[in-house]
Amino acid sequence: MDTIKSKYLDRLLADFELLSEIILKELSIIRTLFEKGKDLALCEEIERSEKIIDSLDVKIRESVINAILLFNPKATDLRKIISYHDMTIYLERIGDLIMNISIFVKENEWESDLYTELKAILAKMLKHTEKMVSNAVYAFSCEDNSRAYLTIDTDDKVDNLLKDITLKLQQSFAGRVLTESELKILMSINTISHNIERIGDHATNLAESAIYLMEGKDIRHGNK
């Protein structure tokens, strides 16, 4: 039975690692889109990856339930198995946010002066969140709590950059009637920046799940 359980958990780990790799690859594609502008082939690659993410999400969560039912795991193993479940949910949500960003990039033109002005801040936000996701996954897989706490600390930087973008948008369009194209680019930048900020939030959730696995304590809602 122990051999069967070990092989089962190894498969669960392999599926989780594949899901993590796909998410990180998608984030790197979004970074490329920010650098080079709209690229339909890259947007379509994200769309294809999203289907794989959804499939892995279902598979991993079913595997978690089956592992609990089949093996009646002890407390330590149970905590890790449940952590797979929680981490998978957060990664799948990150995938949805990446898809949202890809859609807005695909459907808009990005030659405006406003986008050129804010592009560096968006890229910086994305760089932070990409690193946060990478650190959180590493913290979970390698049980490195320092990476987990670093992820949580970085979230404030992302929030501050979102505030910078919101303020610049307000200043750029204050006191005048917007054209249709201006309104469209404003809404797109606002939506993209909020989606990036939400990726940071879910990376923080990933890190908190990793800490729960390693330390057995729930630090959400300031319970550190």
Write a structural description:
- The chain has 224 residues and is mainly α.
- It has one domain: Phosphate transport system protein phou homolog 2, domain 2 (Methane Monooxygenase Hydroxylase, Chain G, domain 1).
- The chain has 6 helices and no strands.
- Helix 3 packs antiparallel against helix 6.
- The longest helix is centred in the C-terminal third of the chain and has 36 residues, at 180-215.
- The protein is elongated, with a radius of gyration of 19 Å.
Task: Give a quick rundown of the structure.
It contains 6 helices and no strands. The chain has 224 residues and is mostly helical. Helix 1 runs parallel beside helix 3 and helix 1 runs antiparallel to helix 4 (113-142).
Order of helices and strands: HHHHHH
What can be said about the biggest beta sheet? none
Structurally, the number of domains stands at 1
- The CATH architecture name reads Up-down Bundle
N- and C-termini, Cα separation = 38 Å
Radius of gyration: 19 Å
Name of the CATH superfamily: Phosphate transport system protein phou homolog 2, domain 2
What is the mean predicted local confidence, pLDDT? 89
Oligomer classification:
single chain
Total of helices: 6
Low-pLDDT sequence parts: none
Give the DSSP E fraction (strand runs of 2 or more residues): under 5%
Beta strand count: 0
- Dominant shape: elongated
Q: Pairing-aware structural class of the strands and helices?
A: mainly alpha
Helix content: over 70%
CATH topology descriptor? Methane Monooxygenase Hydroxylase, Chain G, domain 1
